[in-house]
Amino acid sequence: MKLTFTLNGRKKSVEAEPDRRLIDLLRKDLHMTGTKEGCGEGECGACTVIIDGEAVHSCLVLACQLEGKSVLTIEGLEENGELSRIQKNFVEETAIQCGYCTSGMIMSAKALLMHNPHPTEEEIRVALSGNICRCSGYTQIIRAVKRTAQEGA
């Protein structure tokens, strides 16, 4: 089936089987490898992207659900060829251990900040509750999101 949607601010038209998962479409067909697959069951959040302003696990979204939608991936956060403020803050706050969960964490945090630019720590924790990091105690991750909110990015 032919799909037309917006990917990172650019219109895309692609052919895909309707039951193809978004994670596979992104990684294998469109070569957008920043989105990672962890569990493939919507449990770990490594594959989180933003669709029409909402954080979703791309392993649970089918290609046929994309028609007319806007998809934002970790690659779409760059600003003028540089890391976005939230990405920089993850690096500066050492909120990255092995890095496998990082793109999903950042996308969940970005979706939160799009809707709530000044979240409380509890709201940050809730927004990140669909993401698992096996390396960290989450302290640095929460600090990076708080810092981004304080900086207004």
Describe the fold and architecture.
The chain has 153 residues and is of the alpha+beta class. Helix content is 33%, strand content 15%. The N and C termini lie far apart (38 Å). 40% of the residues are buried. The mean pLDDT is 96.
Coarse structural class:
alpha+beta
Please give the order of strands in the largest beta sheet.
2-1-5-3-4
Please give the alpha-carbon distance between the first and last residues.
38 Å
- Helical content stands at 25-40%
Oligomer: single chain
Present the secondary structure layout:
Layout: E1 2-7, E2 10-15, H1 22-29, E3 48-51, E4 54-57, E5 70-72, H2 85-92, H3 102-115, H4 121-127, H5 139-151
Parallel strand pairs: 1-5
Antiparallel strand pairs: 1-2, 3-4, 3-5
Helix pairs in contact: 2-5
Jot down its keywords.
153 residues, alpha+beta, globular
Quick recap:
The protein is an alpha+beta fold and 153 residues long. The chain has helices at 22-29, 85-92, 102-115, 121-127, 139-151; strands at residues 2-7, 10-15, 48-51, 54-57, 70-72.
